[in-house]
Amino acid sequence: MSPEMVHLLLELLSGVIVGFTLGLIGGGGSILAVPLMVYVVGVPNAHVAIGTSAVSVAANALAGLGYHARARTVKWRCAGIFASCGILGALVGASAGKAVDGQKLLLCFAVLMIGVGFLMLRGRHDRGCADAQCNRDNAPRVMAFGGVTGLLSGFFGIGGGFLIVPGLIASTHMPILNAVGTSLVAVAAFGLSTAISYMMSGYVDWGLAALFIAGGTLGSYGGMRVSRRMAGSSGMLTVFFAGVIFCVATYMIWRSLHG
C-alpha cells in the first residue's frame, strides 16, 4: 500500500473516531480532532488543525444531531437558548485564540480538559430528571453557561461539547443522554462560528476537512447507537467521557512539553 493511501486511510479513520465520539457523548470531537490532525495526520500548523477541526466537528455534529433527533433525545428549547448565547462568545474567543502561540494554546487546552474531566466524575452517579426543561427559573443559568462555554469554545477552537454537556446538566439537571443529544445543536453552532473566523484567516485545509466529515458521518451513527445502550448503566457514559479526556489530555501535555 502506497504512503499516500495509508495517509488517506488515516485521515478517514480519524474522522470516524471523531464522529463516533460526538455521537456517543456529544463532545470530545475537537478534543480528539485537534491532536489527531497534529500528531497522526501530521498537520504542521496548530492553527490550521484547529480551524479544520472546527469545520469537520460542526458538520459531524449536525450528522449526529439528526440521529439523536429521530431518537427524541434533544430538548430543543434548551438547545436554542444555550447555542444562541454562546455564538457571540465563540466569535470573540476565536479572535483572541489566534493571537496566542499554537503550542501554548494546545497546552492550555489540555489542562482545561483535565479539570472538566474531574468535574464530570464527581457527578457520575446523578441520573438527572427526565422531565427537565428550560424555564424562567433556570433560563439565566442556561444563558450564563452558554455564554462562557461559547467563549472557551472559540478561544480553544473546539466544538465545546465536553463543556456543553456538563453545562446543560448543571443548569437544567437533565439526564446525560438528553444532554448529549441537546449539546450537538450548540456544538454545531459554536464550531461553525469558530470555523468562519479561522476560514477568514486562511486556517482551513478543505481537503482534510472533507475526509474527516466523510468518516465522521459514519462514526456518528455508530456512536449514537452505543450511547443509547450505555445510558441505562449508571455513570457509564460519564466515566467513559472522563476517561477519553484524561487520556488525550495527558498525551497532549506530554507532546507539548517534549516537542
From TrEMBL:
It is found in: Cell membrane; Membrane. Coiled coil: none annotated. Its main location: membrane. The keyword Membrane applies. Keywords: Cell membrane, Membrane, Transmembrane, Transmembrane helix. InterPro entries: TM_pro_TauE-like, TSUP/Inactive_protease-like. The chain crosses the membrane at residues 12-40, 46-67, 79-97, 103-121, 142-164, 176-196, 203-223, 235-254. It is a multi-pass membrane protein. It comes from the Bacteria. GO terms for cellular component: plasma membrane. Pfam families: TauE. Belongs to the 4-toluene sulfonate uptake permease (TSUP) (TC 2.A.102) family. This is Probable membrane transporter protein. It comes from Novacetimonas hansenii (Komagataeibacter hansenii).
